[in-house]
């Protein structure tokens, strides 16, 4: 985002924080309704352009949003929406993407209030691994010729009753708007859940499944290195032969057998 959109996004997030002062149901409703608003804006180009038109006064844009959505969404959601459209955005897309992000944050806030944020974060990470390991599923969820509704219905059939309701909502929304590979979409959502808990994520590939004690030891070691609470997500990758590869942001720590063999081979050439 350019500077104007970053500032606008910050103001919209402040409005979301102010709106989510009630129970977890307020956060859940706000998240779902923001997703519904995004769906309308995705379908109606003229409306989304009008709501982000900097040549029109901020008050006029807010009034337009209230005329279109007033009575159809809750007061909390409307407050977030009118604040967002009253800002000056560098691009129309930034407005819509930010509304989607705020919807995600609201649902994750609901999961936190319910004490289910750890489960949602883990389910999103595992969903990413399932998609990556199933090319047919990944292709079905990424196909450009398949409608967003069809992709959401596919996830409904696969996940309903097996994951948290909030996990399903987040996954359906993300897949419905994603373009291309969908595996990383779930990783970003999982990382967002960790960030809202003020934690950073370590993506770990291990040659074999790690025991709970090994996970705890690894998390404690990484926390000492980064001086922040760490969430560890582990993916089993037998091609490593032994050991682990840890990625934290742009940092990669390769302690795998295959990594050592590659470094040895390079040193001999």
TrEMBL record:
CC annotations in GO: plasma membrane; proton-transporting ATP synthase complex
Q: Which residues form a coiled coil?
A: none
Subcellular location field: Cell membrane; Membrane
Chief subcellular site?
A: membrane
* Pfam families hit by this protein: OSCP
Query: What are the protein's UniProt keywords?
Result: ATP synthesis, Cell membrane, CF(1), Hydrogen ion transport, Ion transport, Membrane, Transport
Per its UniProt record, what PROSITE patterns does this chain match? Answer: ATPASE_DELTA (PS00389)
Check the record and name the InterPro entries matching this protein: ATP_synth_OSCP/delta_N_sf, ATPase_OSCP/d_CS, ATPase_OSCP/dsu
Question: Could you cite one Gene Ontology molecular function of this protein?
Answer: proton-transporting ATP synthase activity, rotational mechanism
Superkingdom = Bacteria
Keyword Methyltransferase present in the record's keywords: the answer is: no
**Lipid bilayer topology:** Peripheral membrane protein
Q: Which family does it belong to?
A: Belongs to the ATPase delta chain family.
Q: What does this protein do?
A: This protein is part of the stalk that links CF(0) to CF(1). It either transmits conformational changes from CF(0) to CF(1) or is implicated in proton conduction. F(1)F(0) ATP synthase produces ATP from ADP in the presence of a proton or sodium gradient. F-type ATPases consist of two structural domains, F(1) containing the extramembraneous catalytic core and F(0) containing the membrane proton channel, linked together by a central stalk and a peripheral stalk. During catalysis, ATP synthesis in the catalytic domain of F(1) is coupled via a rotary mechanism of the central stalk subunits to proton translocation.
State what protein this is by name: ATP synthase subunit delta
| Species of provenance | Nocardia pseudobrasiliensis
Lineage, please? Bacteria, Bacillati, Actinomycetota, Actinomycetes, Mycobacteriales
Query: Could you tell me the gene encoding this protein?
Result: atpH
